[in-house]
Amino acid sequence: PDEGRRKLAETPALFREFSNPDVFLLIPRHSSEHRRYIPVGFLDNKHIPHDSALIIPNAGLYHFGILTSSVHMAWTRAVCGRLEMRYRYSKDIVYNNFIWPVASEKQRAAIEELAQGILDARAKNPNSSFADLYDPLAMPPELLKAHNALDRAVLKLYGFGKEMTEPEIVGELMENYQELLHRKANEVIEQYSNFRFHSPFTASQARLWTISGRDSQANPGIAV
Q1: Whole-structure pTM value
Q2: How far apart are CA 140 and CA 31, in angstroms?
Q3: 20 to 30 A Cα–Cα from 188, which one of 28, 46, 86, 222?
Q4: How far apart are CA 168 and CA 77, in angstroms?
Q5: Does position 100 have pLDDT exceeding 90, yes or no?
Q6: 97-114 burial, b for 16+ CB within 10 Å, e for fewer?
Q7: Could you read off the pLDDT of 77-91 as tens digits, one per residue?
Q8: Packing angle of the helix pair 203-212, 166-193 (nearest 10 deg)
């Protein structure tokens, strides 16, 4: 018998795990397909995330800004799963394969400032739920304005034109993804070709290996 489990049985209303991050970014697994943006937000250790959401423990304002941008939403709509027609966000397909921009400290600071603007706009509507705030037909003007400003900055950070359509954005991201896969596959092949024994990876196997592995881009990992 698990003595710890017996002890916990004395307080069945309490959760067993208390090791929540002090602050984390929460992304819902499912969201309405009618929304322009998936509602993403910060929570603290007073909240226990449920299986209906994903969390990013070490995320900051910069990561929030990129993930709530039109660029990331374009990627999400193109590659995410669906529950009926609702978005189904996943760490393996959506998050891990997303290509992050290369940003200087000054550029990161600019994104962080605009991301904070979104949080400030939300705070001006304390009685509104995320369902209210992100209703595509009734989004508060100040929140929409804040999102539009962030979107322009993120597009510029990627080197995308402000008039680019969503299919064009996805096309550019896919090209960047293919370039990354090709580069990582070549690195793996080169690494194993330096050994005197026969390499266990063929070119195609190395390519598949890089698809399942997340490129290190100094961005936080996502937790289930």
Answers
A1: 0.80
A2: 19
A3: 222
A4: 13
A5: yes
A6: bbbbbebeeebbebbbeb
A7: 999 999 999 999 999
A8: 120
